Amino acid sequence: MSTRERATAAALRRERPRAVARPRASDHRETILTALAGWLERTERLPVVRVLEGRKPANSHPAFFMEVPRLIVGLEGHGTFLAMEQGREITFDLAPGQVLFLAPYTWICPVPRAAYRSLGVVFRPDSTRLTIHARRAMTTDGAIPGRYLAQWRTHETLGPKGEHLLELLREPPAERLGDRTFTLLSEILLAELAALVERAPEHVRTGQAVLWQAVLDYISEHWSDPTLSRKEVARFFRRHPNHFSRFFHTHAQQNFRVYVNEIRLERSLQFLRDLRYNVTDVASLCGFSDVQYFIRCFRQRFGFTPGEYRKRHED
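-> structure tokens emitted (315 positions)
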């Protein structure tokens, strides 16, 4: 081949359209897609359960709080939950195929009477996370053994369409459709999620960074639980507590308790601005079982007491 022919061939290769890279089809992506497809193929639609009230139920069960909207879809078994509705505590079962919508800044208390599996979706402003979670029945000491069966994350979101659908789930139902409104909205939302999981690039990390991200996700969902501990998280991820301590300190550059307390103290600022709660309430809401310990940690972190912070905010 002459020099000119080689140059022409090289130019043609440069001009040839490149194949679009297909998203990485990990086992977790496929597992979650299968769960979404199974839900979308169901002919029976159960009523959507909505949790819109922000106050925490006044009970001794672990309660989980997040600032962003969430969906929980029942897959197998019946999950039992406790929440607030119009100032009253309500207990309800989530049946297979049923959708639970949690508005931002709401609490939920799982109190399972039997084992169940669910698909959870967390809608963050900069990412979307889906997990399949298996939980066993609550034990006599209040613990709820569980583990992740699949987890998938992308830095893409559903964009304005998704935000609008989630906002509509918080609104009163359409007059002519009634609660069918929420069934239709959830169907559209889960169809959009399935399309997102099919096309979006997965946020993939290698080695121990995968475990570290999973640990952060777990803490972000359980920081308000006063029973959250290094040993509990190590057991959940099937690690020896001493190995987990070294792993955690390597990534966080601080120990587990300091890290979790920092999250709790930052969250406490929001609750202190809400005059429905006294300081003891705020300590409990943020996972501190001892109010004096909360006050001491708060003063060390911010330089003044929770009461002083509240007075500054009122002024």
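The beta strands are 49-51, 64-66, 70-76, 79-85, 88-94, 99-102, 106-110, 116-124, 127-135, 146-154.
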